[in-house]
Amino acid sequence: MVHRVAVVDRDLCQSKKCGLECIRDCPVNINGEDCIHLDEEKIALISEELCIGCGICIKVCPFDAIDILNLSEELKEEKIHQFGVNSFRLFRIPVVRKGEVIGLVGRNGIGKSTALKILSGSLIPNLGDYEHEAGWEPFLRYLSGKETKDHFQRIAEGEVAVSMKPQAVYRIPETWKKETATLLKRMDEGGRLSEVVKALNLEGAMKKKVPDLSGGELQRVAVAAAALREADLYLFDEPSSYNDVYQRLAVSRVIRSIADRGKSVLVVEHDLAFLDYVTDYVQVIYGEPGVYGVVSGLYSSRTGINSLLEGYLPQENIRFRDHPVSFGDRSVVETVESEEKIATYGRIKKKFTGFRMTIGGGSLTRGSILGIVGANALGKTTFLRLIAGEEKPSEG
Ligand code: SF4
Ligand code: SF4
To answer: Tens of pLDDT along 152-211?
Structure first.
């Protein structure tokens, strides 16, 4: 048995510009029933009860506005939230555990942010009933016998303090124009300011105004602000972005130290190496971006990450991708001497006020990829600009 999921992208559906092909060609409509019609806002509205899943509307819509999927009937009983008719829905909810870091991975648009909002209590799940105002009672009844019941019971009673590092750190300067130190002092509810500032290498950023911080500094300031607050649950939405490998390591140590104090921590992250280092367990959200997301069971970090790459969840016996993600089988070092060189450069020196760099000679070869690694602010961009001719060398 399957249950039908019909999603109409309200931004893509343009009924004034199309020939209403979905309504015209739907076989259920042709048979005289009302499977698709336009709603009050002139957007296609599909009845999931009447739809037979033939997929004709998907093919005939000139704007790719429709998705129709068949999901297992059992999943229907595990719907946590649906935003509205023919819209995205989330099945199952991640687990949080005291003293442990749990990672949440999945593609963009798959429901990670929705899950975070529910876990933090800022979104009350409606169990799919989008026509009535949601309340905690039905959700708590649904959770009966499940591990997360206690967390949500305390959320409903207002007993869980939540500290969140948002994904969109670039928006922080819109609301905080003063010095970093003023911001972090205000967040320091546990007297750990100097310890966290040192751990995140933020000493140099403390006197800067927040709008003047680099992307990496801003990210670490946001991590510090969340870590400094006294909370029961800490949520970090993509904490590694903009930072180099050393700074990511520093961020991961700070996040781990929060769990070591017995707090619950949940991390949403795309950097799998970071996740492997920082988490105790991983949950994968799979599904179709913008259509539906399903939260997997709890996996040990290594198994969860391998399952994500493999596209197969062994506990659930679900293949959510028909091919594994592979990083190839090349050896780390390959000689490319015989291939065509498209640029060759000798030893180059470049000086700026307070900064100098020396580049050993080398060459770029057609068809090969040259990787450049190193900490932020060591000259990687300058190197690229020199090679591209956008920057003149001081010597060489
Ligand atoms: S879903 Fe496609 S075919 Fe149907 S009304 Fe919207 S734009 Fe037209
Ligand atoms: S998939 Fe459903 S809504 Fe679309 S044409 Fe077929 S029956 Fe109609």
So the answer is: 999 999 999 999 999 999 999 998 899 999 999 999 999 999 999 999 999 999 999 999
CATH classification at residue 8: 3.30.70.20
Q: What percent of the chain has pLDDT over 70?
A: 95
49 and 120 belong to one structural domain: no
Q: Give the residue from 72, 103, 120 where a domain finishes.
A: 72
**Domains held by the chain: number:** 3
Task: Please work out whether the CB of residue 30 comes within 6 Å of at least one atom of ligand 2.
Answer: no
Q: Are residues 139 and 275 in the same domain?
A: yes
- Mean model confidence pLDDT for the chain: 91
CA of 26 to the centre of ligand 2 (A): 5
Question: Which token pair is 134?
Answer: 């949601």
12 lines ligand 2 (CB under 6 A): no
Does 396 reside within a domain? Answer: no
Tally of CB atoms within 10 A around 49 = 8
Does ligand 2 lie within 6 Å of residue 118's CB atom?
no
Asked, for residue 263, whether it belongs to a domain, the answer is yes
Chain centre distance of CA 345 = 40
User: Which of 226, 250, 246, 245 lies closest to 237, judged by CA?
Assistant: 226
Other CB atoms within 10 Å distance of the CB of residue 176:
17
Of 36, 38, 66, best ligand 2 pocket probe by most atoms within 8 Å of the beta carbon: 36
Q: Which residues of the chain have pLDDT under 70?
A: 327-339, 367, 375
If asked whether residues 85 and 182 sit together in one domain, one would say yes
By alpha-carbon position, which residue is closest to atom 5 of ligand 2? 26
* Last residue of one domain, picked from the residues 72, 96, 128: 72
Q: Which domain covers residue 185, as residue numbers?
A: 79-319
Closest-CA residue, ligand 1 atom 4, reads: 22
The residue nearest atom 2 of ligand 2, judged by CA position, is 51
Phi/psi zone of residue 383: left (φ > 0), alpha (ψ -120 to 50 degrees), beta?
A: alpha
The 10s digit of each residue's pLDDT in 109-165 is 999 999 999 999 999 999 999 999 999 999 999 999 999 999 999 999 999 999 999
